[in-house]
Amino acid sequence: MRAVVIKFAAAAKVVVVVVVVVVVVVVVVVVVVVVVVVVVAIVAVEVVAILVVVVVVMVADLAVAVIVVVVVVVVVVDVVVAVVVAIATVEAKAIGSKEIVSYW
What we know:
This protein is an all-alpha fold. It has one helix at 2-94. It starts with a helix and ends in a 10-residue tail after the last helix. Keywords: Membrane, Transmembrane, Transmembrane helix.
């Protein structure tokens, strides 16, 4: 009877050790998974933040480009109008006209 109790106690110790090892492994795996998920979430947030900054910079660059194009168009139109007014003025003087060509 005593031998059976000793064998049972030894088997119980083995079972307890196995259960403890399994619990420790499960806890370690859960901790690793949580850490990986947190790191991935942080990296994802940083990537999104970087993308937002990039998009804002691109929109600002586009706005500057549009402003530059508008300024160039206005300057070209002003030059063309000035040339047309100058030509009209010269022609009016050449034919002896008293008309005043005005440029607004």
